[in-house]
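Researcher: Sequence recovery benchmark, item below. Answer with residues only.
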């Protein structure tokens, strides 16, 4: 037989309303009373009836998190921070991955809506703004993360991709490299456009010509990274440094460089965008642009929670549509060094 809230209240020696407020984190309840009620609930094995609570409050205490994949380490970080922050506020997170397919993304968004989530964080394709705008009008909170959508009315939290790419490219040029290769994302994505722009602007600032033969852009996949690395090496462009700005592609780039016996940094200085344990443990450790994934997630969840329960009138919706950027920083490691002068 399921344990009722009444049983918890009786065990703790408080009223049912006090027990309910204590278990829901009400600031009106003292720490001592909350601890007492939580102890009784745990001892008795009490589990709240979320469905009944949702009907009463019109809140499910559920948050959706939709993202392209779990290969990207930043996405892992965002998922972990979202879960921690949501739990601290009494919410549970439903995580879904789309494989980067806009149709699958739309299906998942609609499924989350059907289950009555209070809000959704989306690292998406940018092609489902009409769906998420409808959610906003219906009172569901939405925040775009990492990737934006031009037509979206929801707030967007982005990394400072252009600035980070500029700093990484300028770092390589400052070491004396004049032939700097670039492996980046597709121009259809925010990071693909912004990082390529930062790379191009840094070359111009350093007085270096942009050479299309040194640049390969493509999908966020390991296979693309491997193919791009092989192609750049085969082109014999005189490349002495490489900026791998496509995070997922790095998983393909590194094994190819190792298999081709490219010595880093003697044969090729290497910098990557977005940090992860693999790059810290690689030999030598790889210079990176840290995009601040934890800070991005913290801000995105705060924006989502502030949205939940807010008015959905047109004026408020117009105020929501803002873009926030979290700064990136260069972390220098042993994979970048001045080019080695070859004896003739």
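Model:
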């Amino acid at each position: 037989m399921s344990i009722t809230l009444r049983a918890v209240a009786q065990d703790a020696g408080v009223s049912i309303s006090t027990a309910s407020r204590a278990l829901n984190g009400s600031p009106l309840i003292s720490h001592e009373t909350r601890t007492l009620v939580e102890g009784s609930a745990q001892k008795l094995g009490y589990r709240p009836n979320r469905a009944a609570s949702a009907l009463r409050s019109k809140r499910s205490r559920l948050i959706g998190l939709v993202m392209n994949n779990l290969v990207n380490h930043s996405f892992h970080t965002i998922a972990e921070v979202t879960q921690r922050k949501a739990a601290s506020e009494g919410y549970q997170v439903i995580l879904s991955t789309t494989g980067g397919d806009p149709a699958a993304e739309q299906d998942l968004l609609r499924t989350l809506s059907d289950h009555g989530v209070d809000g959704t964080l989306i690292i998406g394709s940018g092609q489902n703004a009409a769906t998420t705008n409808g959610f906003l009008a219906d009172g569901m909170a939405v925040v775009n993360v990492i990737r934006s959508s031009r037509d979206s009315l929801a707030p967007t939290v982005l990394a400072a991709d252009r600035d980070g790419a500029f700093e990484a490219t300028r770092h390589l040029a400052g070491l004396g490299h004049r032939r700097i290769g670039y492996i980046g994302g597709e121009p259809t994505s925010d990071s693909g456009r912004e990082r390529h722009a930062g790379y191009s602007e840094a070359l111009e600032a350093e007085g270096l010509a942009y050479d299309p033969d040194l640049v390969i852009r493509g999908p966020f996949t390991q296979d693309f990274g491997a193919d791009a690395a092989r192609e750049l090496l085969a082109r014999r462009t005189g490349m002495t440094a490489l900026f791998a700005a496509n995070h997922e592609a790095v998983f393909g780039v590194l094994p190819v460089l190792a298999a081709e016996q490219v010595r880093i940094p003697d044969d090729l200085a290497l910098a990557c965008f977005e940090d992860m344990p693999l790059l810290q443990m690689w030999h030598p450790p790889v210079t990176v642009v840290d995009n601040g994934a934890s800070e991005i997630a913290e801000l995105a969840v705060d924006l989502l929670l502030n949205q939940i329960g807010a008015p959905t009138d047109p004026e408020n919706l117009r105020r929501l549509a803002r873009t926030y950027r979290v700064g990136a920083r260069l972390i220098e490691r042993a994979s970048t060094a001045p080019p080695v002068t070859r004896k003739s």
